[in-house]
Write a structure and sequence with these properties.
Blueprint (H helix, E strand, L loop, with lengths): L2 H4 L2 H15 L4 H27 L2 E4 L10 E4 L1 H28 L4 H20 L3 H19 L6 H31 L4 H7 L7 H18 L8 H7 L2 H35 L2 H20 L5 H21 L3 H32 L10 H4 L1 H15 L5 H15 L4 H25 L15 H19 L2 H16 L3
Antiparallel strand pairs: 1-2
């Protein structure tokens, strides 16, 4: 059996494990099954990745040849995203075990079952070569995510989940309408087949409407400004483990799907030259960069602060894509990868603080750096990556964005990248100042440092921010290979 025949198991294993997990009693069993499911997916994708950098793999289900049958088709682009999703799930779950015992003390079998469904859905979205199956897996992931957010300790988690449900349903409906238009015009749902048939009909109103519906629908899922209104409350009130997982994976998968439709199905020339997509995406990216950073500067709830920061970081990713060049696309994909490391570490640090203090409001964390020095040092180090300090993953992303902007003849974008990075310094410094340079509030009970069982996974993710800031073979090499795969025209 070659590695291509193993790839479906990266989705099937967590999908099958989910109902088993729901029936398991206690806490250790469900967590262990979830961890093994994520680890299995990671190992399969990691083994396949060197092959994907050189070409692509395809697995037709039931031996029905595409486009008649459904297939998984994997290249460097979705291989990189699948590796990211599986790695985040695997490395965060050891940290989540203790956090969830505190935040979700009951029904952990159901909780981890929902997580496995969300994880399997994201993996399925990433690996499938069928446009309709993108929608199916999108719904599997979304429905389980709504329920996971509702598990938050604050009652406002229910309202945040409901708002996300409404906006997520609108987004999924738009995507489905767009796919329906494509099927109406071509008679196929296979992505590779769509790419071959669309040139004959792409000047029609139906195809242009399909692209518009898909961009708007995925923009909602991506939290692209101004379609981001579901994200701040969802991140702020979800259980901390779910916030880490969503911040590091969900928006990244949505961006990948948008890229797959824009570059592979509709085609680079049609999307950016026949239609004004460059101007639209560039305007929304810049607006998101500034609006997200500006609002983050005045937040008191630190999870909301990082949520609005994510809106700005999505702007960076879309900025690279809007340049419509190979360098810009690679820079956007690189920031997709690196941002998962930044936000994963930052939200893990806040979750660890919440485990001790019971709050992530900046007023309640005065002097916490002297009581939890290792945890807050991890937050500060991850904050350096978010700002873009040299030797961090964030610096590499922004450096490649600057290079792409200069090569595209848009030097004024460099100034905007620098300005928004300075804004990030302000809101990260607010946390550092409160943690180390402000006296502890007398009303707050003194706390002790988190145990090694929380610190070790946290510092693994923090270390990754520096590792990929120094050794960029995987991140930059993967992003460049992914850009070539998307510009090559076949999924």
């Amino acid at each position: 059996m070659n590695i291509g025949e193993w790839l479906p198991f990266s989705v099937l294993v967590p999908l099958i494990a989910a109902p088993v997990c729901a029936l398991m009693p206690g806490r250790t069993g469900p967590w262990l099954l979830a961890f093994l499911g994520a680890l299995t997916s990671l190992l399969i994708v990691a083994i396949a990745l060197p092959v994907l950098w050189q070409g692509e793999l395809s697995y037709p289900f039931g031996n029905w040849p595409p486009p008649i049958g459904i297939e998984y088709r994997i290249d460097a682009a979705n291989g990189l995203v699948a590796l990211l999703v599986a790695a985040v799930a695997t490395f965060v779950l050891p940290w989540a075990r203790i956090i969830n015992n505190f935040e979700v003390p009951e029904r952990q079998g159901i909780f981890y079952a929902l997580f496995l469904l969300a994880f399997a859905g994201l993996m399925g979205i990433t690996l499938t070569g069928d446009a309709f199956n993108v929608f199916v897996f999108l719904e599997i992931s979304s429905l389980s995510t709504y329920a996971l957010i509702a598990h938050g300790w604050d009652r406002r988690a229910l309202l945040a989940s409901f708002r996300y449900l409404i906006m997520g349903t609108v987004g999924a409906t738009f995507v489905l309408i767009g796919i329906g238009f494509l099927y109406m015009m071509t008679g196929t749902l296979n992505m590779a087949d769509l790419a071959e048939r669309l040139p004959e009909v792409r000047d029609t109103t139906a195809v242009r409407a399909a692209l518009a519906f898909i961009i708007v629908g995925l923009g909602l899922k991506l939290a692209l400004f101004p379609l981001h209104l579901w994200l701040p409350n969802a991140y702020a009130y979800a259980p901390n483990f779910i916030t880490v997982f969503l911040a590091a994976t969900a928006t990244k998968v949505a961006l990948y799907v948008m890229l797959r439709f824009i570059f592979t199905i509709f085609g680079h020339d049609y999307s950016f030259f026949a239609l004004p997509l460059t101007a639209v995406l560039l305007a929304l990216a810049i607006a998101g960069m500034f609006a997200g950073s500006w609002v983050a500067m005045f937040q008191h709830n630190l999870k909301r602060m990082l949520a609005y920061s994510s809106v700005a970081q999505v702007g960076y990713m879309v900025l690279g894509i809007a340049l419509a060049t190979s360098a810009g696309l690679a820079a956007g994909l690189l920031h997709l990868f690196n941002h998962a490391l930044m936000k994963g570490a930052l939200f893990m640090a806040l979750g660890t603080v919440f485990w001790r203090v019971g709050s992530v409001r900046i007023d309640d964390l005065s002097g916490i750096g002297r009581e939890m020095p290792w945890t807050m040092t991890a937050f500060a180090l991850a904050g350096l990556s978010l700002i873009g300090v040299p030797l961090t993953a964030g610096f590499v992303s922004k450096w490649y964005l600057i290079i792409a902007a200069m090569e595209a003849g848009q030097p004024w974008l460099v100034a905007l990248i620098v300005i928004t990075s300075l804004m990030a310094i302000y809101y990260i410094w607010r946390v550092v100042e409160a943690a180390w340079f402000t006296p502890a509030r007398e009303a707050r009970t003194p706390v002790s440092e988190a145990p090694l069982s929380l610190l070790v996974p946290l510092y693994v993710v923090v270390a990754a921010n520096f590792w990929f800031g120094i050794d960029t073979r995987l991140s930059v090499g993967g992003a460049e290979a992914a850009a070539r795969a998307l510009l090559g025209g076949s999924p």
